[in-house]
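User: I've been trying to design a sequence by hand for this structure and keep getting stuck. Would you show me what you'd pick, starting by listing the structure so we're on the same page?

Assistant: Good idea, let's start from the same input. This is the structure you sent:
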């Protein structure tokens, strides 16, 4: 099967099963009002099924980026700057209207399913995916079958 056919098959299985979707967002720096800067917020840009290294929408396939959970801003002490930045992103998602605890994907990018584009690739003519930065290529049909099954019927306790 071709990449578009594999993706369409996965979409059909997910839609039929009513699999949960997660929000796509984009960080927006609001314009100043009377010269005063306002806090950035994350605006909703749609939703997608999260399949590991891929996000699958109704009409596109995306590479995942950063994932945050929306939460109210709170003063906290941080031991690392990266913790502070993640907390600021979570607060920006909440300011953007996402529900408390809602998962939001940021920094995603559209992939062309018919062109080799990381993480998608053709290996010996077989559509494949690089499922992690250090991982090797895996056949896309097996990867999608596994990920769709996990999303439709997650293991107990997850």
């Amino acid at each position: 099967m071709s990449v578009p056919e594999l993706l369409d098959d996965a979409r059909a299985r997910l839609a039929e099963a009513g699999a949960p979707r997660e929000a796509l967002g984009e960080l927006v720096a609001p314009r100043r009002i009377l010269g005063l800067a306002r806090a950035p917020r994350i605006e909703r840009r749609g939703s997608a099924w999260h399949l590991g290294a891929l996000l699958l929408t109704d009409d596109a396939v995306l590479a995942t980026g950063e994932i945050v959970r929306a939460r109210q801003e709170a003063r906290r002490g941080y031991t690392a700057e990266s913790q502070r930045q993640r907390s600021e992103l979570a607060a920006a998602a909440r300011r953007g209207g996402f529900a408390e605890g809602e998962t939001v994907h940021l920094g995603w990018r559209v992939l062309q399913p018919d062109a080799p584009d990381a993480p998608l690739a053709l290996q010996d003519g077989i559509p494949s995916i690089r499922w992690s930065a250090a991982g090797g290529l895996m056949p896309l049909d097996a990867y999608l079958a596994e990920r769709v099954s996990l999303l439709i019927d997650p293991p107990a306790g997850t």
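That's my pick for every position. To get oriented when you compare it with your attempt: The chain has one domain: 3-152. The radius of gyration is 18 Å.
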